[in-house]
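P.,

For your records, the input lines for the assembly:
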Amino acid sequence: MARQISRRLLIGATAAALPLPGLLCARGDAPEFEMKMGNDNPMSHPNTIRQQEAVDRILKETNGRVKISVFPNNQLGGDTDMLSQLRSGALEFMTLSGLILSTFTPLSSIYGIGYAFPDYKKVWAAVDGDLGAMIRASIDKAGLYGFEKIWDNGFRQISSSTHPIRTPDDLKGYKIRVPVSPLWTSMFEAFGAAPASINFNEVYSALQTKIVEGQENPLVNIETAKLYEVQKYISMTRHMWDGFIMLGNGRNWRSLPADVKAVISKNLNGSAEDQRNDYANSDGTMHALLEKQGMVFNEPDPEAFRQVLITAGFYDKWKEKYGAEAWAVLEKYTGKIGS
Ligand code: X2X
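Structure tokens returned:
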């Protein structure tokens, strides 16, 4: 169902993305601002569909003055490559997990602490509230611009080609791919697994060639990246929530006229809300689609995994890394973590 919706949306978005001859001719010249936006999501993914909608509205509302082209699916390179391009100004916008960004702005991974958020209500209160403001301030200090509304990257589940993950013991020595981020590596080391840091554009081949047994992602990413072709089991561990921060190159963003920034912000933040709804309503549909592709689901007890993180000192380690002040902001929304 979500795929039809996404296909319908995609067809709509693609058609709308076709050059708007009427608009451009109305000004009779090239756009005043031509910029690029990158992501690591396939064409059929809600990120790509909603980003394309946003840039279409921006082109229209600026009467062809501002043209942002979306390059999905790692077309510009993997996440770490795109982040370097963003920092240099070769790329003007991208969506990136705060945990991958944290190699550059350590505080931006704080929302990804294992089992910190039980539900979306607390997630959005935090990232649309003081926790998000704190993260954006750290991004700003690092010379980038973080848009107010973080996009959703869902609650993450573990997939495997070898065996289902039923208890924390099943993670001992488990060769799992994780995105390039100290927090992801640290969490799976705390579980006793063998995490391998690999960018998303290389995940399918790493699973196919058995470099790793499994990976972890929300169902919509597993489905849209066709990981069901190289995975057999999905264990609904729901071990963390992740978000895609919409980022701009700071220098470029500051150089834009105020009216242009207002139109871009309104439409990107507006599409973030639409994309959040897509994700929040997708798990049931994705579950059915993935089962149809032959994937076998199990529901382990999350508390057993959380206890392992406590015993391994994972929470104490990261509370020290972020500092008591930042941790207090996190716990303002999550309640006490790690006890
Ligand atoms: O790399 C991943 O697993 C993904 C697609 O979820 C992120 O961008 C963090």
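Two observations worth noting. The chain has 16 helices and twelve strands. The longest strand covers residues 241-249.

Regards
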